[in-house]
Amino acid sequence: MDVIQVPATPKEAFNKHRRISDLIKAQVAHLKHVEEKLPSTQRPALPSHAIVTENDAAQYIAAMTSFIRGESKPAAKPKKHVVAIRNTAPIDLAAAAEPDKRPGRAPKKHPKKSVKKKMTPRGRR
Amino acid sequence: MLDRSLPGIKNLKHVVVLMMENRSFDHMLGALHASNPAIDGLTGHETNPDSTGEPVTVSDSAEYQSQLDPDPDHHFPAVDLQIFGGVTTALDPNRQPNMQGFVKSYFNQQHNLRHSRLILNYFTPDKLPVLTTLAKQYAVFNRWFSSIPGPTLCNRAFAHYGTSFGQVSMDVFYWNKQYKSIYERLNDAGHSTRLYYFDEASSSLEVINLLKEQPSLFGTFQDFLTACARNKLPEYTFIEPNYTDHDDPNGAGELVACDQHPDHDVRAGEQFIATVYNAIRNNPSLWPNTAILIVYDEHGGIYDHVPPPACLPDGFVAQPTATGTPDPFHFDRLGVRVPAVLISPWVKAGSTIDDVFEHASIPATATEYFLGQYPTRSPREIAANTFLQHLDLSTMRADSDCPKFKL
Q: What pLDDT sits at residue B252?
């Protein structure tokens, strides 16, 4: 049987500014519930940013998950090779010209503003 | 009762479940009916009325991304409309599911007639080489339904506990739960088990009840791959995909969601499924003794043509305040059908399985195989069909007979 080539996910599929779905809202709500049960001395160490986009949610979820799991296991060390589903297709010129989508781009000073600007119909999830 | 004399069962050491997000059977696998009529997919002539009453025919023009935006409604009232076509119990106390309300339901979100018709789109097999190859080369479940005609979390709860403890929504807090999760059962009996989420930033959807209470049960997807490579795979494994597009917390770049939840790119999910498969398929110490189930949590509001059957009531009742409909729900009907594929070198290529399954079949199967008798389970789980008996070949398939994927 021939080896089957799996198509790559194109670069433009990635949109960390996409508004969070009901699923992620529920996941965040559950973690907020956990956070509210914590002693007030521990809460300041946790992120308190507004959660609008998938990346906002991911940052909060990562902090809370590491915190929760840290009770019995230290947070994971940075990995040399993160095996993940990554954008492997070549960056086309249009995608490269889009400043918010470039990997390694420093966060903007006013993320809320940029989020608003980028709210295409695709972003209204 | 599982026949433990089957060679595939005698060899079995590991059961791996990968649960993806929000796609219906017909949307992903329906086109396979053309090449294998035993697969209960689409003829291409199925229709749904739009909001003007005009029939809309299913179309093989599903796209990887951007078509199902906004996310099709799959909360309880919307799914009730999708399944019963708008016939309420007030109109007909004996109403029967007719799968005629999908376009109407999607129309309700934007009042865009043209856009609402996209909910009937399905993929051609060439667009989904991983899932459709696995379906063609192993066993497809023709009747695997989501457990509840509702959203993600209550459906996923059935995969972990065999019940949602009366929940039909995303507000899942199982205080005083009377049934243990499959992980707790296995741990108590000295069996190894892990629930692998993608990474800390994606985490698990079982936040309150498992992650908080039993963090040692969890690992990341990298941990899963490492466990496979080192032949340390637990006996029972459950894998969750990446639920968000996000920057890698460790600075390794962009991580694209691979859960296939609309409007995430379906190709990323194909890669993820292939990665899970390859980790086992390419390890000769694991492949002969591992069964993999790939299944979706619910249909995500997307069309399927098979009416969900009635089922044994779960012993819980969700009141109208919870269902969002005029009626209480007695957990006596399954949700919409979802893709499900059983993979093992002990499964005959091109098999179809016609018995009814639902997500309670997952803990039911793991319990039956690893623990045997275990009475303290939900009525639904006790009644659920199990699936390992389909590892029924008398000899293992040759290596050259089992597909391989290149990422």
A: 84
Contact (CB<8Å) B130/A6: yes
Tell me the three state secondary structure of residue B247: strand
CB atoms within 10 A of CB A29: 13
- Asked if B244 and A122 come within 8 Å (Cβ–Cβ), the reply is no
Q: Which A residues 16-75 touch B at CB under 8 Å?
A: 16, 18, 20-27, 30-31, 33-34, 54-55, 57-59, 61-62, 64-66, 68-69, 71-73, 75
Q: Is the peptide bond before B70 cis (omega within 30 degrees of 0)?
A: yes
Q: What is the distance of C-alpha A61 from the center of its chain?
A: 9
User: Per residue in A46-87, pLDDT tens?
Assistant: 888 999 999 999 999 999 998 888 853 433 444 443 334 444
Structure confidence at residue B281 (pLDDT): 98
Set of chain B residues whose Cβ sits within 8 Å of the Cβ of A120: none
Output the pLDDT for position B176: 66
Q: Tell me the CATH class for B7-32+126-397.
A: alpha beta
Give the per-residue pLDDT at A76.
42
Query: Pick from A7, A31, A75: which is nearest to B207 by CB?
Result: A31
- Mutation pick from B243, B266, B277, B406 vs chain A, by most beta carbons of A within 10 Å, is B243
Distance between CA atoms of residues B349 and B335, nearest Å: 28
Residue type, B323: T
B139-141/B351-353 β-pairing:
parallel
Nearest to A56 by CA among A19, A99, A27, A87: A19
Report d(CA A82, CA B253) in Å as an integer: 10
Q: Label each residue of B188-238 as H, E or C.
A: HCCCCEEEEECCCCCCCCCHHHHHCCCHHHEEEHHHHHHHHHCCCCCCEEE
ipTM of predicted complex: 0.93
Return the pLDDT at A2: 86
Interface contact A95, partner B, CB < 8 A = no
Put simply, the answer to whether B207 touches A30 (Cβ < 8 Å) is: yes
Verify whether the Cβ–Cβ distance A1 to B255 is below 8 Å.
Answer: no
- Tell me the whole-structure pTM to 2 decimals: 0.89
User: Closest-CA residue in chain B for A25?
Assistant: B170
Q: How far is A107 from chain B (nearest CA, A)?
A: 11
3 state SS of B57: strand
Burial class (CB within 10 angstroms; exposed 0-12, middle 13-18, buried 19+) of B284: exposed
Q: What is the pLDDT of residue B215?
A: 84
Output the six-digit token pair for B298: 């619910």
Three-class secondary structure assignment of B262-307: CCCCHHHHHHHHHHHHHHHHCCCCCHHHEEEEEEECCCCCCCCCCC
CB-based burial of residue B255 (10 Å sphere; 0-12 exposed, 13-18 middle, 19+ buried)?
A: buried
Q: Do A34 and B246 touch (CB under 8 A)?
A: no
